[in-house]
Amino acid sequence: MAIFMILLYILLALIAYVVISFRKRSSYWKSQGITNEEPHPLLGNMVGLGKSKSFGDVWQEYYEKFKGSGPFLGFYFFHRPSAFLLDPALIKNVLIKDFNKFTDRGFFHNPKDDPLSGQLFLIDGNKWRRMRNKLSPTFTSGKMRFMFPIVTQICEEFVEVLAKAAEENPVVEMREMLARFTTDVIGSCAFGIECNSLKNPNAIFRVYGRKGLEEQRHGRLVMAFMNSFPELSKALKMKLFPEDVIQFFLRIVRETVEYREKNNVRRNDFMDMLIDLKNKKLIKSEHGDDLTNLTMEEITAQAHVFFNAGFETSSTTMGFALYELAQNQEMQD
Q1: Which residues are CB-contacts of 35 (< 8 A; sequence separation ≥ 6)?
Q2: Residues 192 and 277 in one domain
Q3: Which of 22, 69, 103, 122 could form a disulfide with 109 if both were Cys (CB 3.0 to 4.6 A apart)?
Q4: pLDDT tens figures, 185-199
Q5: Which pTM was predicted?
Q6: Would residue 12 count as lying in a domain?
Q7: Which parts form a coiled-coil structure per UniProt (predicted)?
């Protein structure tokens, strides 16, 4: 009975802490005299996210509603008070002139329990700055050029698969075809493996790559909690990505690195550059600072974000381009 009462008191204290924090945060901009829209009790100003709206949709609506009302206004990223910039000059200062003071993205990440969340686009502060310095030398035009032969080879395979598909059916679903193409390209460049998605739509890399993008580990309310209380969420060992997706990419990277190091294999791709950083062969940043080695988990996170950043964005852009060419056939000549 005593243990039950203790647990009950702890639960009540936790609930009280969350409620008080919610109320305090939701009145932050009002207490500062800054214009803002009344936040939703749970979702802040992110109402509709994931259900009918993307991040871009939410921010676009907020901008259209308040543009011209001042240089910036208050916004609640779930329950985290954030400044929503409106003035182009102020935006330029934040993104360029004063960027070193505004490096944090503000997204939840927990690399200790969810290694995939340790990617460059999610981490903050000095950890982000050190990781950026490590990765900057890998994205020079010269190093990117080394990957062209890999891309060319997959392009040739894509032409063959597309021609065969067109022979079987004059109507080809290009969105799926392009997604398989970009999966093979980025899977090969970032992870150094032959995904074979073009020939096999259900290839395992395609399955897990799609799952990592399309499936949410948590619902909107849990995500609101994680982004509003990141430190508490880390203490509770909460994660962003589905567990099987995390383990798949960790295994793929570990096996790839071990095989290359054991057999002295080099492909001049992104994975080679990450392995060099792991073994401290690239030890100077663009500013000449010494860099520490990458861990296997950090390699996995950066390879994963390379895949995420290039997979859907590239296939969607190519899909729109092909649609416009189909609608304006005179431009094909």
Answers
A1: 29, 66, 69, 70, 73, 74
A2: yes
A3: 122
A4: 988 888 888 888 998
A5: 0.75
A6: no
A7: none
